[in-house]
Write a structure and sequence with these properties.
The chain has seven helices and 33 strands. By secondary structure, the chain is mostly beta strands. The longest helix is centred in the C-terminal third of the chain and has 14 residues.
Length: about 550
């Protein structure tokens, strides 16, 4: 996924370039400026890898940086006695130090003296790395103004006392420098050396990008960013839950303060905690079944369901099928939109439906696919319904015979909109050369799986250029077993249909009073080749012969 991201906080510092000597004189003259920036950028909610940094439409850095995205834990994580007090710490790295004022050494402390307390801990990264750390506490007697009611109010009512205090007394533990992770920074660091990207500070140049950068995944155990702590102090937030990229006094421009747009290619692979072996497809794409399940259950995506509300077997079956089809997507969700719209968009991409099972009450994920054995499907005949309505066919003149799809083509600097078009020439000829076209958008589709746009395009054209029949069935108990997305074979010789594979689009099971079941169905595009048409049977009606007699006047 690539996108422009919001700059949460930034500082701009400018430095004068070294002066250049003016021809014919000894005095130096300032000919330009170099500009540096310290900043932190909020990228998105979730990402596990940073793949590319693009500055002003040019690639400044490319690689694969996970940013040490797992959590860090600290031990011991309970009350630990020290020489002059005790530490209360959490596995997330927050601590509080309590000074024992009754300790003889603390009680005897003079204002000019200090004591040093220390606590040794172990930091463990989820990658398996372990490093020791030591927290040092300084204890001193500090002057303190306290209210004394016995003092004369004209003197202010305060008196100066000396009290033993511990500094610091709490906060975040300094994280040891894990591999590829700078001290004090909660994630992976890397260096960008692209100063000459736009000519640098040479005559006629306009800068580039150079400096130390740090990538943070926003995990639950993330510590405050070391760069921001330099400017904000102990009150710096950890930005947990937000993927960030930060830089410290990095070179960004020369001569003019032109800060060019920064774009980042980030990747989120796995991390679903459910069926991870089928979570990614073609190395870089997400299995849509995983993303739909995540959107239904993850509060960060406005998920309102628990895992127990979902039919796990149906989601796994869908994940298996999509994995076998190499049907991988690059989902992108703007949290200003509705979660149900996002889920429906994913379902449209994969040609699937979500159905609540009437027996179990669980949500099921179904893929609308062919490849089935029509002879194994349940048969519905006249004895199963009391009425059939609107059995008809889409008019030939209204059929779509040209489909264009829009999707994202990956480039060196991000994504660009791409299109693909396909026509059904036979249908165009049947319509006397008239072209009926439609354009469809698939925002989560990329060319990472090269043939996938073509497969989706062929699917959409096929579904629109064939005159499928649609109808409504009404009945009672015998129809109640059919749910949305289900297939059945319609056996209706009276209408000339011996074997027509149909799919349920909507199901209405009536009320407690009438219990009338209404199924809205359509001929299934994948079963068109299997339909059998028969000649309707003769009726017992015999046409009259001869002329009818004239009425006899009374």
């Amino acid at each position: 996924m690539t996108a422009f991201f919001l700059c949460l906080l930034s500082f701009m510092l400018s430095l004068v370039r070294p002066a250049a000597a003016k021809k014919g004189g000894s005095k130096k003259q300032t000919v330009g400026y170099s500009y540096y920036m310290a900043a932190i950028f909020g990228l998105c909610l979730r990402a596990s890898n940073l793949l590319k940094v693009v500055y002003g439409e040019r690639v400044a850095w490319e690689g694969s940086l996970s940013g040490m995205g797992g959590s860090v834990s600290f031990t011991p994580a309970n009350e630990a006695p020290t020489t002059y007090g005790h530490i209360t710490a959490t596995v997330a790295g927050r601590y509080a130090y309590s000074l024992d004022a009754s300790n003889p050494a603390v009680a005897a402390l003079l204002p000019a003296d200090t004591l040093t307390d220390a606590w040794t801990y172990t930091a463990t990264h989820s990658s398996g790395q372990t490093l020791p750390g030591t927290l040092t506490i300084t204890i001193a007697k500090r002057a303190k103004e306290v209210w004394n009611p016995d003092l004369h109010q004209g003197d202010g009512g305060y008196q100066t006392v000396f009290e033993a205090v511990a500094e610091p007394s709490g906060g975040a533990l300094p994280r040891p420098a894990f591999a590829d992770t700078p001290e004090g920074v909660s994630e992976g660091g890397f260096h960008i050396d692209a100063k000459e990207l736009f000519g640098g500070d040479a005559n006629g140049g306009s800068g580039g990008l150079k400096g130390d950068f740090y990538f943070s995944t926003g995990h639950d155990g993330q510590l405050p960013n070391g760069i921001m702590q330099k400017y904000l102090g102990a009150d710096c937030p950890a930005h947990r839950g937000i993927v960030t990229l930060s830089m410290d006094r990095s070179y960004v421009a020369s001569f003019s303060a032109q800060f060019r747009p920064l774009r980042y290619l980030v990747q989120n692979l796995g991390g679903y905690g459910w069926y991870d072996e089928k979570a990614t497809i073609a190395g870089t794409q997400i299995n849509p079944a995983h993303e739909i399940r995540d959107a239904l259950t993850n509060p960060d995506l406005s998920g309102q369901y628990a895992a127990a509300d979902l039919d796990d077997a149906s989601f796994r079956a869908a994940a298996d099928a999509l994995y076998a089809e190499t049907f991988g997507l690059s989902p992108k969700w703007d949290d200003t939109g509705k979660a149900q719209d996002y889920i429906q968009s994913l379902l449209t991409h994969i040609d699937g439906v979500l159905v609540r099972d009437r027996t179990s009450g669980l949500l099921r994920l179904k893929l609308l696919r062919g490849g089935y054995d029509a002879s194994a499907l349940p048969v519905v005949g006249p004895s199963d319904f009391s009425g059939i309505k609107t059995l008809g066919t889409v008019a030939l003149s209204s059929l779509v015979n040209k489909v264009t799809i829009k999707y994202a083509r990956l480039t060196d600097i991000g994504e660009e909109t791409a299109t693909a078009t396909q026509e059904n020439q036979a249908n165009i000829q049947l319509q006397g050369g008239v072209v009926n076209s439609v354009t469809l958008e698939f925002p989560h589709l990329t060319n990472a799986v090269p043939d996938l746009p073509g497969r989706i395009l062929a699917r959409e054209l096929r579904a629109r250029c064939y005159p499928l029949r649609s109808f409504t069935l009404e009945g009672k108990t015998t129809l109640a077993s059919h749910q949305e997305g289900d297939l059945f074979v319609l056996h209706f010789p009276e209408r000339g249909l011996e074997r027509m594979v149909c799919r349920v689009l909507e199901a209405d099971y009536g009320t407690l009073d009438d219990r009338l079941v209404t199924l809205t169905c359509t001929e299934d595009i994948y079963g068109v080749e299997q339909i059998s048409l028969v000649t309707p049977p003769d009726t017992e009606w015999t046409p009259a012969t001869g002329r009818p007699p004239f009425p006899v006047p009374s």
